[in-house]
Structure to design on (307 residues):
């Protein structure tokens, strides 16, 4: 399943530009319309290597482009799920200077199978060339992205590329997943607040007419089929927090996905409920009742990914 939110490199700015808080559905291929099309440069980049391997490229000279292009050079057979609107895409990427052919960056997972993929968010209101490159792609696709000099200026400057030259990317789409918990809802233990969701998967909380119980407890309302969260994982999530007085404290469905950190980072991050997510699985919705020193709250967490 999904793991790494953004790479620890200078391209972090571009990736974060695509992270928004909203509902998501995995779109079938027939219902998805890409915004980037094949073009003279993306069609003529030669890519050596299989999906998942470090790509080697040969970039043709003297092809100037005014707008970014993308071409799917290796296409997966299964296209039942694609990276549609409001999708979190798990990817491995490599970037090359179109003028010199020099590799500027490669995802750590290309070099080591132990490293996690990286994340891109596909959302039209926060579109950028990287995220649009995988729009409507299916897991298993290898995509060539040829960015125009205007679109690639920031990434070229950050990664040491040639000024005013295109940047070519090779992107492997590992997985595409919605931004909500997936699965059948189950009943919560007696005494828990009621949690309901709308058609987009956004949760709401109905508090019981009694005082909050002491301590901290949690239960899964939806059980996902993804990887199990460890204490060392940084959890990427949608979070709704409501005080026992009914006041909303946090709602990432309006403000955007959050990275909750590891258990060791609880004090620094302030997400005191993070420990309750250890042992749960990606794709789950966890309901946490937390009452520390009389400050009670209900936290509903959709676990979207881990890194």
């Amino acid at each position: 399943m999904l793991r790494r939110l953004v790479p620890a490199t200078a391209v972090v700015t571009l990736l974060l530009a695509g992270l928004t808080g909203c509902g998501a559905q995995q779109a079938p291929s027939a219902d998805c319309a890409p915004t980037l099309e094949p073009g003279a440069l993306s069609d003529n980049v030669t890519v050596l290597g299989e999906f998942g391997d470090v790509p080697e490229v040969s970039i043709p000279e003297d092809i100037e482009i005014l707008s970014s292009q993308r071409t799917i050079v290796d296409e997966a057979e299964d296209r039942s799920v694609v990276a549609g609107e409001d999708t979190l895409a798990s990817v491995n990427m490599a970037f090359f200077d179109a003028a010199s052919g020099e590799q500027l960056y490669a995802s750590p997972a290309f070099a080591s199978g132990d490293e996690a993929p990286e994340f891109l968010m596909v959302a039209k209101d926060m579109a950028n060339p990287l995220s649009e490159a995988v729009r409507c792609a299916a897991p298993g696709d290898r995509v060539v992205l040829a960015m125009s000099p205007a679109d690639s200026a920031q990434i070229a400057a950050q990664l040491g590329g040639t000024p005013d030259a295109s940047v070519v990317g090779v992107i492997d789409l590992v997985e595409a997943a919605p931004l909500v918990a997936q699965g059948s809802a189950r009943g919560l233990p007696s005494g828990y607040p009621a949690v309901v969701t709308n058609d987009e998967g956004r949760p709401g909380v109905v508090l019981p007419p009694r005082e909050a119980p002491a301590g901290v407890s949690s239960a899964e309302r939806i059980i996902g089929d993804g990887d199990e969260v460890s204490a060392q994982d940084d959890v990427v999530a949608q979070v709704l927090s409501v005080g026992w007085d009914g006041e909303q404290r946090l709602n990432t469905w309006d403000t955007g996905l959050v990275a909750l950190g590891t258990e060791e980072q609880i004090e620094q991050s302030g997400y005191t409920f993070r420990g309750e997510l250890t042992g749960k699985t990606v794709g789950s919705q966890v309901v946490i009742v937390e009452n520390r020193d009389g400050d009670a709250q209900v936290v509903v967490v959709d676990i979207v990914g881990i890194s």
Observations:
- The chain is about 10% helix and 35% strand.
- Residues 1-25 have pLDDT under 50 and may be disordered.
- Residues 194-306 form a domain with the Chitinase A; domain 3 fold (CATH 3.10.50.40).
